[in-house]
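Reopening this one. Same input as before:
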Amino acid sequence: MIKKLWIFSPFLLLFLLHLWTASVVKAQTKPVPLGQKSLTLPLKVKLTLKDAIGLGLKYSFEVKEQKNGDQVRELNYKAKKRSLSLPQINIYAQNTLSHSLLRTKSSDGTTGLKFPDEETDVRSEMANIGGIGLEISEFTLFDFGKDDDLLKGAGFDLKKGQLKSKTFYMNYKFRISREYFRLQNSFEDIGLAQKEIELTKEVYELTKKKKGGGQAGGLEYLFAKSEFIEAKRKKKDARRLYYRKLFLFNFLLGQPLQQDYKLASKVEYRPLKVTLKELLKWIEVAPSLTEAKINLNHSKLNLRTTWKELMPFPKVSLSGLRYGHGYGTDGAGTVSQFIGSSSPSNFDLRVALNLTVPLVGEKGFFNRFGVQSAELEVKSAENQVKMARMKAQGEVIGKYNDIIAHEDAIEGFKEAIDNSSLLLDEAFKAFRKGRVKVSQMREALNRKTSSLKDYKEAILNHLEGKMALATAIGMENPFGENGSENDKKGGANED
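Same output, byte for byte:
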């Protein structure tokens, strides 16, 4: 039996090898839940800012919802336009079957309802008539532009929807840019935490040697060990924060939550080169002010329409246009004429001139409340335009000043980084010689780490400030400075 098994040994070996290979691949690609010792995610994908924006525009749930809304608005406008510009054409078909029993006088002189099976003078009439054809309901030929005003009003609503859609896509791209660089910053924080581990470990080991040689006390040793342990904890926290931001970033892009990336685009600091005077000239195209202007034009249109409703303007319309064929039989024989017509023709045409002049009532000529209300709406819309312009000016001034403040902070943080780097180098040299305590080393390290984080945060705040300013003005590209030079040649800044 054992000898027979040797025949299948090569196949058994291949099968075991396959199982082992599959288990290794599965272990390398299987995501590890948060809270476990390892937080390594599947293969990292190289991702530029331009690629991230492209993924979001293609797969994001928010974008898909926005596209659906845009399509609904376009379809509603087209439906309104068609209903006002084209006649309502219907296909009709009808069939009527009737059976009449007549009250007659019997041979005995009595009267009443008799049935055909009774031997009486009873007459029964049956009819089966119907028709099929096309008809046009009332179609307005001329109404002094009332239908045109309705279409223009629908056009204003469409413009507001298009403006909001444009603002959405602009803000969505900015959100991706912001979260992209925030995620990148969080990943770099892991690297900073690792450097802190290396430095505190070296201090801990040196203190340990000094303690063994009697050059350092137990308290100093324990303090150095505590700093080393704290540095390792900070790295774990930094990793958890990174993955939390990664999941949110993937949700924003509509990607698998645990997909990790190698972010290829780098944010660079570039001071704002546009003056406040130039920025204030651009507020006329700001989304908030543009929407207020659309509302003003719409209110003026409503006022004009309200006046037309009061005027004795006639309405010329086409109605009762039919073409069809009728059929049927009755007690007298076959019927062949157009249903609803007294003539045997298959074509029926009516042209109506309708003149309605309301005198009293809601829209009556002597009831100008509607006009007064429409006039007040125009005044209110004019006021809203003035308010929107002033608000846009204030918003631009405020965001401009914020950007300048960020630029001042960045210059200060640059100086702090240089100084803290020199401080840490000197402190470490002095520690080796026993002239500096662990607590002083920690202070120097904190200053270096803090200045680096503050500098990176200030650069991101500066970039986000330019994005906010671009949003307020309605610019899709925040002054051409939302990425690196490499991105400009084929990357993020082209979006």
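So the earlier flakiness isn't reproducible anymore. For the record, Strands lie at 45-47, 89-101, 103-105, 111-113, 124-136, 139-142, 261-263, 315-330, 333-335, 347-354.
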